[in-house]
Design brief:
This protein is mostly helical. The protein is globular and about 70 Å long. About 50% of the residues lie in helices and about 5% in strands.
Length: about 525
């Protein structure tokens, strides 16, 4: 019998324990043989991986069949690091995996390989990077590239000539320089929404070399952030505990002291009533904030919001230092020293580019979960099960609102984490998310513009947020095809499926949510007319 604190001590590559459905496993001997690579296991070492284990092996039972031989004990009753979910007993998630898996089997013999193909992402990002670097060079070179030596290759020389002509025109116009800085900022965000995001979910190719190289190239070296930080915040934090107060790193972690009031359990302040004005303005600083928190939190304090960060190792620290230096070299040294851009103009163009990146990322992130149509499990009141309770369904009916003070306070008999068995039914009190994991993912996420390929490209398929959260290991380029399948299963199980007509509606409902939570003592009534 072990507590989660005891399991957490075994969080290294040469000493790795995990828990699945309250069973403790020593998988140290399996690390080097894991088909998904070592990095993924280093990330989840010493943690409960029930949900990750299930959602990252959606179309195969091989992992489940194998892991049993590494079983060493049981998790102590009531010993949870974060609030558990209701046990997966409705069959909702099993139906999702089966029907989507059947769809991929019609595309090829191996649904895993089909669902992770990197081809669609590669050619898209080649075009984006071409536009990005062209705009960066034209805006920041100040004519230093207008007289470059032409190549002996006819096609390359023609491309150089076109670039020099374009660069010359940009240099002569401040307006064009600003426009290029904006385009560069957007193109700095797009590879993160596409390739990097898929790499962080093991859905860009079928092995860790693809995920490690392409993920870190775009996030660490190109954008100056850090993949390890993103993994801790997004992959094992936000995706497992979506919209769960004090567990989701994208949410506030305390009742007081945060300028965002996103759940009614947070203490209201006078500042809160203005958050629908100042938060959208501050979103532009997302990129800068991420780069700073890499250093001050993840690689110093070993935390990312409520998530504890496992040791980085020598190579992890080295990669962090080298990538930051490379980013400074090409984004600051190259324009200021090599191209001799005047400091005031460099500062202006860099600010515009960074704000463009920050807004492009943040607006796409925020509308997908912070909305009047999304639910916030545990956002209103703690749910503490007792030994003597009445049975409660784990699947909300269609059109059901967010758990309010009355609904959420009802006792729960069966609790646990998403899996095949009910767990920790001993009566020990622990705050519990009153839904199955897959149900919670669905009702806390928001889809929009499902019929717009342009919107899907611009936001890296984040407009299919429900599909992404249910099946994160599937490449985003498949979401438009599997969305009707997910919707049908939701309708069959009576699970609320949030789908809005366009981004503008999603953005409006995001701002509306901020406004309503900013009013003194108010919860947000769930909007059901669009379900």
């Amino acid at each position: 019998m072990y507590t989660w604190e005891e399991v957490a001590k075994h969080n290294a590559e040469d000493d790795m324990w995990v828990t699945i459905e309250d069973r403790v496993y020593d998988i140290t001997a399996w690390v080097s043989r894991h088909p998904g690579g070592v990095e993924v296991l280093r990330l989840v070492a010493g943690r409960d991986i029930t949900i990750a284990f299930d959602s990252y092996h959606p179309f195969t039972t091989k992992a489940k069949d194998m892991v049993g031989k590494y079983h060493i004990g049981t998790l102590a009753a009531g010993s949870y690091e974060f609030p558990p979910y209701l046990a997966n007993t409705s069959g909702f998630y099993e139906d999702i995996k089966k029907e989507v898996g059947d769809y991929f089997r019609t595309q090829g013999t191996d649904p895993v390989a089909v669902s992770k193909s990197p081809v669609a992402g590669l050619w898209r990002m080649m075009l984006v990077m071409l536009v990005s670097l062209t705009c960066f060079a034209a805006a920041f070179s100040f004519g230093k590239l207008d007289n470059m030596q032409l190549s002996d290759n006819e096609h390359v020389a023609m491309a150089q000539a076109h670039f020099m002509q374009f660069s010359s025109r940009v240099t002569e116009s401040v307006g064009l320089q600003i426009a290029c800085a904006i385009v560069f900022g957007i193109c700095q965000a797009l590879p993160l929404l596409h390739t990097m995001h898929d790499c962080s979910h093991t859905s860009f190719g079928t092995n860790q070399t693809w995920w490690y190289v392409f993920g870190r190239f775009f996030l660490d070296f190109y954008a100056g952030c850090n993949m390890t930080s993103w993994h801790n915040q997004h992959t094992i934090g936000h995706h497992i505990y979506t919209n769960v107060f004090k567990a989701d790193p994208d949410m506030p972690v305390k009742e007081t002291g945060d300028i965002r009031r996103l759940v009614s359990r947070q203490v209201w302040s006078e500042l809160s009533k203005w958050q629908h004005f100042y938060l959208p303005v501050l979103y532009g600083f997302l990129g800068v904030s991420m780069r700073v928190s890499d250093i001050t939190e993840v690689f110093t304090a070993h935390t990312n919001g409520p998530m504890r960060v496992n040791p980085h190792g020598v190579l992890g620290h080295l990669e962090h230092i080298v990538s930051k230096c490379f980013f400074v070299l090409w984004r600051f040294y190259l324009p200021l020293v090599v191209w001799e851009v005047p400091l005031p103009m460099f500062a202006l163009l860099t600010f515009i580019a960074e704000m463009s990146t920050g807004y492009w990322l943040a607006f796409n992130f925020q509308v997908s979960h912070i909305s009047t149509v999304a639910e916030f499990p545990l956002g209103d009141v703690a749910v503490l099960p007792t030994a003597a309770t009445k049975k409660r369904s784990s699947t909300p009916s269609k059109g059901r609102g967010r758990a309010d003070s009355g609904a959420a306070a009802k006792p729960v008999e069966k609790l646990g984490v998403a899996g095949t068995t009910n767990t920790n039914t001993s009566g020990i009190k622990h705050e519990v998310v009153p839904y199955e994991w897959a149900v919670a993912q669905t009702i806390s996420s928001v889809d929009y513009s499902q019929r717009s390929p342009w919107t899907t490209f611009c936001c890296g398929a984040l407009n299919f947020q429900i599909e992404h959260h249910l099946l994160p290991s599937v490449s985003q380029y498949h979401y438009p095809a599997i969305a009707p399948i997910v919707r049908r299963v939701c309708e069959r199980h009576g699970v609320k499926y949030n789908c809005l007509p366009n981004f503008y509606t999603a953005f409006y409902l995001h701002v509306k949510y901020l406004y309503q939570l900013g009013q003194k003592g108010q919860s947000v009534p769930l909007q059901t007319s669009l379900h």
